[in-house]
Amino acid sequence: MARPTLDEIFAEHDEFGLLDVKAAPVSTRPGDRSLAGLAEVTRFRERFGRLPDADAADHDEMRLGTILSRLQQSPTPELLAADRLGVLAAAAPPQVDWRAEPRADDVPSSLDDIFADDDLDIDESATALRHITPAAERHTPDHRAEFVQCRDFETFRQRFEDMQASLEAGDRQAVPVRKWAVIEPQEGDFFIRGGLLALIVEKSEMSARGGSRDHRLRVVFSNGTESDPLMSSFRKSLNDDKTARMVERTGMGPLDPDWESDRLDLSGTIYVARSLSDEPGIAAQRTILHKIGVTSQDVRRRVADARNDPTFLLAPVEIVAIYELANLPRRKVEELLHRFFEPARPGQLFVTDRFGKKVYPREWFYVLPDHVGQASKLIQDGILHLYHYDPMTQEILAK
To answer: What is the pLDDT of residues 339-390, one digit of tens each?
Structure first.
């Protein structure tokens, strides 16, 4: 069956009067349209306190601006009589050709000029930098990993001589460092860099720097100098040195008893540091919140880069106490002190690095420097296990 045409459909009886539609009368008088446009422009002026701009990004304003420009060109007496706000006599907004070059005065010279514009109503908190080290400060670091004389080089001289002899005899092998190899130096590892034997003497606490894990190293060289670069920087220096070598460890792997034979058990210095941070939550606890650390290098060099190190709460510190160790392995002493004062460790202490990540340092405790001194004496006497620290009374008590 063929489908009916439109003419056939419209020719049928309209039972419900669906096609009986009367169009609304539309005035064809130009004056009526002009008066309607003037009324819209007037309402815009009353609402926004200004005339519409024909070059505005908003479509409705652009339409009203165009209407206003046309009405201002040849206003009729009827329009002037209906213009109660005088919009037809007002100066029309300047028509700017988007293809024209901007005036020099209209081009801001800096971000400060943009933010100083009175038309911009921006909350100061939206433009204030937080958790970010200013560029000027980043370009002038407090600490550089420079080569300095190793004051306790005699402690390591025999290790260098033994390693040199083992390499010459073929008992130890030095393998080239592969390009872009991810090297994880451990205390006691030997490398060859710049033609010198380099011994990793100390690997400090882990910290999240630049969003990734990093450590501060103490590296002693066979020429009697030392440096304290970041592990990432030391790794890069090995990759950049085409003659760099890594001395293989003895043994077959971590399960071999000889695998840890190069590990160092050095005495060091216990230090107690107090944060100078301006953060309200940290500054309010400054007299009781302290960092307990142990280092084999000069304490001043260890804390020199504190304001860039999340381990030090990204702020400078002051050293309030130093206790020397004697014939005790540095790493074990640090583990004993941190375990002993574990009840006084803050539960929610963290800092936010410049990448917005939270870092939770674990070397800070609610203790006094005297408490650390007492615990150090108990370690030296070998009786720390007979005592415990009570955070409520802030006392070291016998068990």
So the answer is: 999 999 998 888 887 777 888 888 999 999 999 999 999 998 899 999 999 9
Give SS3 for 26.
Answer: coil
Instruction: Please report the beta strands in 173-256, taking only residues with DSSP state E, as ranges in sequence order.
Output: 174-176, 190-193, 196-203, 207-209, 212-214, 217-221, 225-227, 245-247
Whether the per-residue pLDDT at 39 is higher than 70: the answer is yes
Give the Cα separation of 305 and 145 in Å (integer). 10
Domain extent listing, the chain:
30-97, 138-260, 269-398
Tokens of 318: 């002051």
What is the DSSP secondary-structure string of 111-154? HHHHHT-TT----GGGT---S---HHHHTS-S-----EE-TTTH
> Strand locations in the chain, DSSP E?
148-149, 174-176, 190-193, 196-203, 207-209, 212-214, 217-221, 225-227, 245-247, 269-275, 289-295, 317-324, 351-352, 358-359, 364-366, 387-390, 395-398
Alpha carbons 252 and 174: distance in angstroms, whole number:
16
Please state whether beta strands 245-247 and 269-275 pair in parallel, antiparallel, or not at all (unpaired).
unpaired
- Tokens representing residue 339 in the block: 């375990």
- The pLDDT value recorded for residue 129 is 62
Tell me which amino acid residue 380 is. Q
User: What pTM value is reported for the model?
Assistant: 0.56
Specify the residue for token string 């206790």: 323
As a residue count, the chain comes to 399
Confidence of residue 272 (pLDDT cuts 50, 70, 90): very high
